[in-house]
Amino acid sequence: MCATRSAAASAKASRNIAALDLLRWCSAALVWAYHAGAAYLAAPSAVSRNALTGVSLPRMLVGYSWFGWIGVEIFFILSGYVIARSAEGSAPGAFIRRRALRLLPAAWLCASLSAACVLVAGLEKPHIILDEWAASAFFLSPLDQIDGSWWTLGLEVDFYLLVALCLWGGRRWPLRWLPAALTLACAGFWLYRWMGHSAPRDQWGRYTDLALLRHGAFFALGMLMERRLTGGLRWPDWLTAAAALGACAYEIYDHADERARAMHIPHETALPLGLFLVGLVIVALAHRWQAGPRLQKIAATLGLMTYPFYLFHQDVGAILLGLLRRAGLAHAPALMAQLALLLAMTLAITLWAEPLLRRALAALLAWRPGGRTGQPAIRT
Prior knowledge:
With about 375 residues, the protein is mainly α. It has helices at about 1-15, 20-40, 45-50, 60-65, 70-85, 90-120, 125-135, 150-170, 180-195, 205-210, 215-230, 235-265, 270-285, 295-325, 330-365, and strands at about 365-370, 370-375. The chain contains 15 helices and two strands.
């Protein structure tokens, strides 16, 4: 009876994803607003800085957009939730294959698009662009990436590998233990920081991120929220959830402090933390919202657009904004035109280029010696 209820809950959850897709898109919009309104001026990447050299940017937008980085933390919650739902009962090979089909096509396309834009704009030397393209296309996360936003993709891949390891380990390392392990590591790291030890975001800080010491609790919290829906939480799970929420809150505090220092603005934690809590509530209640077929389709398309949009919006967006401003457009219409162009490119990738590449990759992964192929299901 319990298994029947769990299966029914899982099936119901799989039908009610419109709220999660819309939340994913809103999170991407927050990150775009952060870069377009604040980071380009106060904390740009090297490519963005060069692309916008000589372009005046209004300081007033910083106060309205500096907190948009919280969208990344919401992404991690969503990843934990969705991956927990899709991984349970899956074979490790099948899980890795599904993740590869979801990640690789858009990553290859977006890395190539970003590299082409940077090359044509003459913002970096060709050999550097080639190195960054290769690092991004082949998920070499410790190396410099083709776009600053790609740092999160390394964390996602590491989380997927941990899930696959749990699936392979079976009873030795059950997937049920992963949220507790992630939370324990993350809480230990933030306790270390709280005791006064520094951990700058330099090369070592990059490895700290990739080890999920800063953000592992976000993935854990998403997994626990999915478990609450499909199987229920035991008292150790509730303790883990409380610890994960505390670690998440401290990371948001620390990130807000870092952004405030970088952008020379007053430190404020309440706004990003409040947005994060709103995102948590939406995730928790997403299964209760019955979206109509038309809205479900729109939300699904927006959800699919989120990944490629996020991957190239920062530096390609800066290149587009610089071109539009130098063409004589005022900042507000140039920003809207930049967003429209980014969305048009994203829609083309989502509806046309990515499905073609995914089908080709699925056929390649399904190939067997002797010309035999499986019948891959490419929906992820």
